[in-house]
Amino acid sequence: MALIMSVVSLSISILYTPFLLLVLCVIFLASIGKSLGVRRLYVNILLKLFEYGRQHIEVAKKVQRNDSSDEEEEPPIPDDKPPSAIIKENGINGTKMSVIERQEILGPSPELNYKRSSSQERIQNGHRTDQEKNEVNLEFHLSHCLDLVKAGVESIIEDQVTSVFEAEELRSWNLLTRTNKQYEFLTWRLTIIWAMGFLVRYMFLLPLRVLIFVIGIGQRHGGFLGLLQRALARASPHIWFERSEVKDRHAVAKRLKEHISVPDNPPILIFPEGTCINNTSVMQFKKGSFEVGGIIYPVAIKYDPRFGDAFWNSSRYGMLHYLLNMMTSWAIVCDIWYLPPMYREPHESAVDFANRVKSVIARRGGLVDLMWDGQLKRMKPKKEWRELQQEEFSKRLKGE
Amino acid sequence: MGNKSSLLLREEEIAQIQEETGFTPNQIERLYSRFTSLDKNDCGTLSRDDFLRIPELAINPLSERIVHSFFADSHDDRVNFLQFMRVLSHFRPIRKNRENKLNSREEKLRFAFSMYDLDNDGKISRDELLAILHMMVGANISEEQLTSIAERTILEADTNNDQMICFEEFCHALERTDVEQKMSIRFLN
């Protein structure tokens, strides 16, 4: 015990001075707008490490599996993609890994339904609008339900919404256990690399970040999240509201209007989805902030998930656990685009305006533009959506 | 961390599923990943609610029938991964030179038949057909029109005049339908 203490104190005293010098150096360079390039170097090293790990895993898996006889040759995958969900392969990350090619996707309203055309024949309706006189002739065939059944089973295999509330799956492992879904013990080399990474993250990066955190915020009290809220509230003014209170929304809208009517007030930062999403997609924007009438400056934010996932899955773990994850990640790398201001057109509804802003942000950030409501994390789909689909089906039967 | 199901798929299980269903190991792993993400409580099986939590499925007019088909073999109202895969394998495309066990044309037709056959007695009655029609169109078409549709459909398909559609009559009625295409999902490797 005494030996350990003396070793620790010795190493601290040896490393103390150069460390302090380094910190001062970085601060000085930052203040004059230059950088040592330490961060870039760090990022490059990590990327090389991940690439090595990935190749290593592939080789190891092939050796383990040892059977290439069941490789089924699939027909070449066609290039057209569903229009309602522009699935962009992020150039650097390339994370969207689909299991199937969707033929039909039902959306919250039938205009948003996607159906792959050409190969799929629409339901045959023998008698069209030529026959205006008597009753509408409804041609039903036992095969008519098959489209719906197939769409349903497809959605069980892969849907647009459930994956959005879970952490993004990475194409190659980034040496954090938390993103490790499939790999059991593969090779010694990989495990050693992981163990070293673990040491670096928990013994070096974590204490460093905790230190910075403590110095930055101040004392500790109970109620961790409350503490953060208080600290943030001291830093800049907030408008708090209760999500479920309807009257509250009017009060909030009023406060928003008051705030923006004064030209000198700082701009309001709004996150219109209303819930945490895993940063692969943009979900429906709540129309409240778009009704207020002011200039909207869209900001697109995209985290690079290879270094650390910034997504807080509030149903799985709490804030403290999340903070621990953040502090032991390799890094949080984030791209931010400030987009030109947007104005609401005179005859445009708030919903249309919100959708317009959403698509601009989605396009810039390389995110999927979803029409679904982010509240689906907590609530069930509305009954009206199903009734709309039933209406759509009956229209098909009637031949409209 | 305990966030994901710590039950990884063992090699023997993958081999067994591959043998029964014909999926490749890669596909099985991807589908297992999907299975665990639907399994919110990490218990290794799915309940009906787990399925209906998928919004696109919940708004599908035939959601109950589709979910029910997964529970056909289940005793405790839960679905394990093997049962899950068996049902999905019905939708594998038919391959000309390979053996098709659960995804042959007949199996696909049998699955489609089970969508209509509510009480699972091997026959589709007029009331069962009416119930399915109700599910699909809601309140948008009148009761009389639906009844006449149901009666007409049975009349056309019923060859042995028992006022019900049995499986053979069903297959006959769907002779000219491209079942292979309508009931196949394109899996990527």
TrEMBL record, chain A:
<dbReference type="InterPro" id="IPR002123">
    <property type="entry name" value="Plipid/glycerol_acylTrfase"/>
</dbReference>
<feature type="transmembrane region" description="Helical">
    <location>
        <begin position="186"/>
        <end position="204"/>
    </location>
</feature>
<keyword id="KW-1208">Phospholipid metabolism</keyword>
<keyword id="KW-0444">Lipid biosynthesis</keyword>
<keyword id="KW-0594">Phospholipid biosynthesis</keyword>
<comment type="pathway">
    <text>Phospholipid metabolism.</text>
</comment>
<feature type="domain" description="Phospholipid/glycerol acyltransferase">
    <location>
        <begin position="189"/>
        <end position="304"/>
    </location>
</feature>
<keyword id="KW-0808">Transferase</keyword>
<feature type="transmembrane region" description="Helical">
    <location>
        <begin position="12"/>
        <end position="32"/>
    </location>
</feature>
<comment type="pathway">
    <text>Lipid metabolism.</text>
</comment>
<feature type="region of interest" description="Disordered">
    <location>
        <begin position="110"/>
        <end position="130"/>
    </location>
</feature>
<feature type="region of interest" description="Disordered">
    <location>
        <begin position="63"/>
        <end position="86"/>
    </location>
</feature>
<dbReference type="InterPro" id="IPR045252">
    <property type="entry name" value="LPCAT1-like"/>
</dbReference>
<keyword id="KW-1133">Transmembrane helix</keyword>
<keyword id="KW-0443">Lipid metabolism</keyword>
<keyword id="KW-0812">Transmembrane</keyword>
<keyword id="KW-0472">Membrane</keyword>
<dbReference type="Pfam" id="PF01553">
    <property type="entry name" value="Acyltransferase"/>
</dbReference>
<dbReference type="GO" id="GO:0016746">
    <property type="term" value="F:acyltransferase activity"/>
</dbReference>
<keyword id="KW-0012">Acyltransferase</keyword>
<protein>
    <submittedName>
        <fullName>Glycerol-3-phosphate acyltransferase 4 isoform X4</fullName>
    </submittedName>
</protein>
<comment type="similarity">
    <text>Belongs to the 1-acyl-sn-glycerol-3-phosphate acyltransferase family.</text>
</comment>
TrEMBL record, chain B:
<dbReference type="InterPro" id="IPR011992">
    <property type="entry name" value="EF-hand-dom_pair"/>
</dbReference>
<dbReference type="GO" id="GO:0015031">
    <property type="term" value="P:protein transport"/>
</dbReference>
<keyword id="KW-0653">Protein transport</keyword>
<keyword id="KW-0519">Myristate</keyword>
<dbReference type="GO" id="GO:0005886">
    <property type="term" value="C:plasma membrane"/>
</dbReference>
<dbReference type="GO" id="GO:0005737">
    <property type="term" value="C:cytoplasm"/>
</dbReference>
<keyword id="KW-0813">Transport</keyword>
<keyword id="KW-0963">Cytoplasm</keyword>
<keyword id="KW-0449">Lipoprotein</keyword>
<keyword id="KW-0106">Calcium</keyword>
<keyword id="KW-0539">Nucleus</keyword>
<feature type="domain" description="EF-hand">
    <location>
        <begin position="145"/>
        <end position="180"/>
    </location>
</feature>
<keyword id="KW-0472">Membrane</keyword>
<dbReference type="InterPro" id="IPR002048">
    <property type="entry name" value="EF_hand_dom"/>
</dbReference>
<dbReference type="Pfam" id="PF13499">
    <property type="entry name" value="EF-hand_7"/>
</dbReference>
<keyword id="KW-0597">Phosphoprotein</keyword>
<feature type="domain" description="EF-hand">
    <location>
        <begin position="104"/>
        <end position="139"/>
    </location>
</feature>
<dbReference type="GO" id="GO:0005509">
    <property type="term" value="F:calcium ion binding"/>
</dbReference>
<dbReference type="InterPro" id="IPR051875">
    <property type="entry name" value="Calcineurin_B_homologous"/>
</dbReference>
<keyword id="KW-1003">Cell membrane</keyword>
<comment type="similarity">
    <text>Belongs to the calcineurin regulatory subunit family. CHP subfamily.</text>
</comment>
<keyword id="KW-0479">Metal-binding</keyword>
